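Input/output pair, single chain:
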Amino acid sequence: MALYKSGNPAFGQNTFAGLPTIAEGEGAMTLQGTVNRIAFLLALVFAGAAFTWWLFQSTGSFSVVAPFLFAGSFGAFGVGLVLVFRKHWAPYLAVAYAGLQGLALGGLSAFFEASYPGIAFEALLLTFGILIALLAAYTLRIVRPSENFKLIVMSATGGIAVYYLVSLVLSLFGIRVPLIHDNSWVGITFSVVVVIIASLNLVVDFDFIEQGVQRGAPRYMEWYAAFGILVTLIWLYIELLRLLGKSRSRK
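Output:
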């Protein structure tokens, strides 16, 4: 079987390496089980986001929400990093990751909403619209990720990640890297490309889940797969917020 390639840091070519193969019905990963885990983690994200969103709306002060935003962001990053190397902890760490990301996303969404009313709802609708459309296309076999497709998505995602990392490091020295925050047409085009790459990662994620079920991966991989889908959806939502914000700022 060909090596698995994905731009999602949670889904790599060694994801299944060393995992035991379990017969169906004996604690193996299932499609329905994975769907249930995804729904549960999304509910946790919404719960956490609702709290920080309400906190910002009721106080009108970003300083009140900032601790949750930063603690949630860095906490989720740390939990996600551990989870990538400790997949069997997924039933616990995936829950923690979803809750922390919810706190961060609620504050971030409220911050964007204060400047551009309605933007959070628009980004949310677009995120789930893209998810449903690509899931339908994948299910109907309209879109199937070949090895070349996966390699392109992986390379593009890696390039974007490196660019963002360089931007973050240079920002510590007061140097602003172009494209990411620019509302010029070039900056908007860059965001459109990033949104497309993030969306294509969903197709590769669907393939990961299908492979996991076919290989008879352990049931805890349902939680890990749900975590991986969540990583992509959150990235897509944030990039849509950024893209919509750039477009609104030009008006």
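The two ends are 51 Å apart (CA to CA). Confidence is low (pLDDT under 50) at residues 1-5.
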